[in-house]
Inverse folding.
């Protein structure tokens, strides 16, 4: 929410032709405060949001109310103390999990890996060993524990709704060996029976597809005025897309890929057949 609100204020400032120093004057503050607000690094005070909107000439009906609503939601979420606060050091992963915990829906596209929310402990450990030195057992188990706890969002009274599109390569890549991979695929097939989970497989035979640029997650929220947030986690960096037009572009990309993928029913049968064909 903070990053999204900051982006909107940044856009309004640039449209008004003002720099951060000029914006800071109306807040009786330094330019650094405006910079931190626009990056979503600090909580938003209602008087500051109102003052900036007046300066920027933002007077569209409902716009200020929407911004103040986002500011309130952001303050409430900063006060929340989820398990990830003590389990993870500050960073992109902790920020992502905090957003995933309050999201209503997740749409995810995966090229080479089973989505984290669907991974078995054995599959997780195989991935962790590849990323962490094998002698750092505690670090490996910590990574497995964090991912396992994230999976709690798939259950309960208000479970996260997940729509995953997975390239066939992720089902065939032998991570952890045949036994672990067969177990992973069977677990995936069991999850596909859940009412809040839809999985589609994009088979090799579909040919060139729209989402060749890399995996991404689209998080959707229940709050009025909340724009979808797109998260892309790379080897050395994490990218967030929170503008309305940009997130809409990823939604369209996801929708096009769904259209060329197998149906959920056919994907389930496809996953079962791959699991059966795996030998020790």
């Amino acid at each position: 929410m903070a990053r999204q609100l900051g982006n909107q204020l940044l856009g309004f400032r640039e449209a008004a032709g003002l720099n951060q120093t000029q914006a800071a004057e109306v807040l009786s503050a330094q330019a650094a405060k405006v910079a931190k607000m626009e990056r979503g690094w600090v909580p938003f005070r209602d008087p500051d949001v109102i003052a900036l909107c007046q300066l920027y000439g933002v007077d569209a009906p409902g716009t200020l109310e929407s911004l103040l609503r986002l500011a309130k939601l952001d303050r409430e979420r900063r006060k929340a103390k989820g398990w990830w606060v003590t389990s993870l050091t500050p960073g992109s992963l902790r920020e992502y999990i905090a957003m995933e915990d309050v999201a209503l829906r997740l749409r995810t596209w995966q090229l080479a890996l089973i989505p984290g929310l669907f991974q078995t402990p054995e599959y997780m450990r195989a991935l962790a060993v590849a990323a962490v030195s094998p002698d750092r057992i505690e670090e490996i188990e910590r990574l497995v524990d964090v991912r396992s706890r994230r999976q709690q969002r798939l259950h309960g009274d208000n479970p996260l709704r997940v729509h995953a599109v997975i390239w066939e390569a992720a089902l065939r890549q032998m991570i952890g060996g045949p036994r672990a991979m067969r177990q992973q695929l069977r677990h995936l097939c069991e999850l596909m029976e859940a009412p809040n989970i839809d999985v589609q497989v994009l088979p090799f035979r579909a040919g060139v597809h729209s989402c060749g640029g890399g995996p991404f997650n689209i998080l959707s929220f229940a709050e009025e005025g909340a724009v979808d947030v797109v998260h892309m986690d790379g080897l050395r960096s994490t990218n967030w897309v929170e503008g309305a037009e940009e997130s809409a572009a990823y939604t369209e990309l996801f929708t096009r890929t769904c259209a060329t993928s197998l149906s959920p029913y056919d994907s389930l049968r496809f996953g079962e057949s791959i699991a059966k064909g795996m030998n020790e």
In short: The chain has two domains: 2-79, 84-276.
